[in-house]
Amino acid sequence: ASAPLVLGIETSCDETGIGIVRGETLLANVIASSMEEHARYGGVVPEVAARAHLEALGPAIRQALAEAGVTLGELDAIAVTSGPGLAGALMVGIGAAKALALALDVPLYAVNHLVGHVGADLIGGTPLETPTVALLVSGGHTSLLLVRDLVDDVELLGETIDDAAGEAFDKVARVLGLPYPGGPEIDRVAVGGDPAAIRFPRGLSLPKDLERHRYDFSFSGLKTAVARWVEARQDAGEPVPLADVAASFREAVVDVLLTKALAACRDLGVPRLLLGGGVVANRRLREVAEARAAEAGVALRIPPLSLCTDNGAMIAALGARLITAGRPPSTLGFGADSTLPV
Ligand code: KG4
Ligand code: ZN
């Protein structure tokens, strides 16, 4: 049998993603983002995201089919993100996926968004090697996973106990008077700044924290520390050294992310680290990841950015893998699960 032709639908946050794969070959990856609509609120507004998915889905599906050069009738299966994510946003994608699967009479696979991020590495090039530790960092999640087998053995090692890493970038950007989304802005402003100028806190890194939260993250204290530091400067009537603050904040985030991810690799004897999520666009994160992974003898994998940010292709690729592994499809009664575990 030839590799299955799968259409994947991703609507867990603010990106409407439609991807089409044939097995592990990418045919289309259409992403419509409602980011701009959220910009004036300084973050993703669930209701706005859900409505935007409703408007974007139809055109995105048509565009993906055209790019892939296939018709709906040729699809072998549909895959859709059923969680975790924003419930209302997820429901829009799930509704569309069920309608398609019913009308086309093809199997439907409900998949986990975080496992989907790992599935991004299936696409093209070299195969996903396991076991691997995966660090997923975006505006919605910051999770550390141990992937022994993509289909049936993915373990959550830790996650953020408050803000996601991308969210921290967005909030600190706001403190610094920079627009949303904050990640790219902070990257830009940090150029020429000294990452060692200010020692901002690394969340959950004290010996007492490491017992219970060895692989967990916390960024809300860091955000507060930056805000206090900036306020103190302003109160004293002194100028705020933007580049140094941005570079020092970014360093704190990058340091804690990679220290914990590489500690997991070492503790568990896993010599592989996969990165995913929109924060992977961060230049310093990539730079430090490459240097520290090399030093630790850990093979680093970073899929292309278009497959790191939320997208439908990774969902389609995971669906194709489930089919190849002989997994039964989902029954049509499933719903959106905003806290779906891996
Ligand atoms: O994966 P993504 O596109 O969407 C979700 O959050 O689901 O990630 C967007 C997040 C935003 O918080 C944005 O500020 C952050 O990723 N981001 C960055 C950079 N580019 C985007 N964070 C740090 N550095 C960047 N260069
Ligand atoms: Zn994501």
Automatic annotation (TrEMBL):
<protein>
    <recommendedName>
        <fullName>tRNA N6-adenosine threonylcarbamoyltransferase</fullName>
        <ecNumber>2.3.1.234</ecNumber>
    </recommendedName>
</protein>
<feature type="domain" description="Gcp-like">
    <location>
        <begin position="26"/>
        <end position="316"/>
    </location>
</feature>
<dbReference type="GO" id="GO:0002949">
    <property type="term" value="P:tRNA threonylcarbamoyladenosine modification"/>
</dbReference>
<feature type="binding site">
    <location>
        <begin position="136"/>
        <end position="140"/>
    </location>
    <ligand>
        <name>substrate</name>
    </ligand>
</feature>
<dbReference type="GO" id="GO:0005506">
    <property type="term" value="F:iron ion binding"/>
</dbReference>
<dbReference type="InterPro" id="IPR017860">
    <property type="entry name" value="Peptidase_M22_CS"/>
</dbReference>
<dbReference type="Pfam" id="PF00814">
    <property type="entry name" value="TsaD"/>
</dbReference>
<keyword id="KW-0012">Acyltransferase</keyword>
<dbReference type="GO" id="GO:0005737">
    <property type="term" value="C:cytoplasm"/>
</dbReference>
<feature type="binding site">
    <location>
        <position position="282"/>
    </location>
    <ligand>
        <name>substrate</name>
    </ligand>
</feature>
<comment type="function">
    <text>Required for the formation of a threonylcarbamoyl group on adenosine at position 37 (t(6)A37) in tRNAs that read codons beginning with adenine. Is involved in the transfer of the threonylcarbamoyl moiety of threonylcarbamoyl-AMP (TC-AMP) to the N6 group of A37, together with TsaE and TsaB. TsaD likely plays a direct catalytic role in this reaction.</text>
</comment>
<feature type="binding site">
    <location>
        <position position="310"/>
    </location>
    <ligand>
        <name>Fe cation</name>
    </ligand>
</feature>
<dbReference type="InterPro" id="IPR017861">
    <property type="entry name" value="KAE1/TsaD"/>
</dbReference>
<dbReference type="InterPro" id="IPR022450">
    <property type="entry name" value="TsaD"/>
</dbReference>
<comment type="similarity">
    <text>Belongs to the KAE1 / TsaD family.</text>
</comment>
<keyword id="KW-0963">Cytoplasm</keyword>
<keyword id="KW-0808">Transferase</keyword>
<feature type="binding site">
    <location>
        <position position="117"/>
    </location>
    <ligand>
        <name>Fe cation</name>
    </ligand>
</feature>
<keyword id="KW-0819">tRNA processing</keyword>
<keyword id="KW-0408">Iron</keyword>
<feature type="binding site">
    <location>
        <position position="170"/>
    </location>
    <ligand>
        <name>substrate</name>
    </ligand>
</feature>
<dbReference type="GO" id="GO:0061711">
    <property type="term" value="F:tRNA N(6)-L-threonylcarbamoyladenine synthase activity"/>
</dbReference>
<keyword id="KW-0479">Metal-binding</keyword>
<feature type="binding site">
    <location>
        <position position="183"/>
    </location>
    <ligand>
        <name>substrate</name>
    </ligand>
</feature>
<dbReference type="InterPro" id="IPR000905">
    <property type="entry name" value="Gcp-like_dom"/>
</dbReference>
<feature type="binding site">
    <location>
        <position position="113"/>
    </location>
    <ligand>
        <name>Fe cation</name>
    </ligand>
</feature>
<feature type="binding site">
    <location>
        <position position="187"/>
    </location>
    <ligand>
        <name>substrate</name>
    </ligand>
</feature>
<dbReference type="InterPro" id="IPR043129">
    <property type="entry name" value="ATPase_NBD"/>
</dbReference>
